Amino acid sequence: MRRAFALSIPFLLLVAGCTYDNGDAHRVIDSQQPDPTLECGTVARSTIDVDSKIDIDPGAGAGVFIEYATGGHWHVRTACDTAKGSAPCVWDILVSPETGHSLSNVTPEDLEDSTDSLHEYASSPGTWQLNATTSSDLDGFTFDADPGSAVEVDALLDGVCAVPYFFWVGDGALHPGSPSNPLILAPSSE
C-alpha cells in the first residue's frame, strides 16, 4: 500500500501543474539580423488540454504561455530571459477566434502603461493584439471564447516569428516550441 502511494506522488505532481524549463532557450534572435531558420511556415493545429496550468519563473526564460480552462476561458502570458542578462523582450501577439466565433471579456493582466497595450486589431475586427515589453515580470491577458472553440495565436518576439517560444500543455505534455506561427489551438474535450 505504501509503495502504491509513493508511486502515485510523482503522477499527482505532474497532473497538478506543468513547469516549463527553457533555461537553454536563450534568445539568439537579433531583430536586425533575423535567424532565417525561424520561418513562420504553414499554419498548424494542435490540442490544448483543459485546466492544465504552467508554472512560470519570471525572468528565467523567454516564452508566450497559453492556457485554457473549462468553459472557454483563455490565459496568455509573456516572460523574458532578463535574469540571464538579456535585454527586455518585445512581444507582438495576435489572437483570433475560430471562424464564426468571437472573443469576449478581454482583460489586460499586469501591463505597464508606458510600454504595453492591449487592443482590438484595426485590420481584423475580432482579433486582439498584445504589445508588451516584458522584462523580469509577466505580461498578459485573459479572454473568453465559445467553450471548445479554437483560437489562432500569432507571436513575434523582437520582430521575428516566435516559433521556439510557444508553450502550452497538450495531450498531457508541455509543448516547448510550435510547429508553426501562427498556431491554432483547439481545446481537448471538456
Q: How much helicity do the residues have? A: under 10%
Structural class: mainly beta
Q: Mean pLDDT score, rounded?
A: 83
Provide the low-confidence segments as ranges.
1-38
Termini separation: 32 Å
Tally of individual helices: 1
The ordered H/E elements are HEEEEEEEEEEEEEEE
Strands, total number = 15
Strand percent estimate: 35-45%
Shape: globular
Radius of gyration: 17 Å
Describe the biggest sheet? 7 strands, mixed
Brief characterization of the structure:
The chain is mainly beta. It has one helix at 2-16, and strands at residues 18-19, 44-48, 54-55, 63-69, 73-79, 89-97, 103-109, 117-120, 128-134, 139-145, 151-157, 160-161, 166-170, 173-176, 183-187. It is 8% helix and 42% strand.
Summarize the structure in words:
The chain contains 1 helix and 15 strands, in the order H-E-E-E-E-E-E-E-E-E-E-E-E-E-E-E. The protein has one helix at residues 2-16, and strands spanning 18-19, 44-48, 54-55, 63-69, 73-79, 89-97, 103-109, 117-120, 128-134, 139-145, 151-157, 160-161, 166-170, 173-176, 183-187. Strands 2, 6, 8, 9, 11, 12 and 15 form a 7-stranded mixed beta sheet that branches. A 6-stranded mixed beta sheet has the order 7-10-5-4-13-14, with no helix packed on it. A two-stranded parallel ribbon has the order 1-3. The two termini are 32 Å apart. Mean pLDDT is 83; it is low at 1-38.
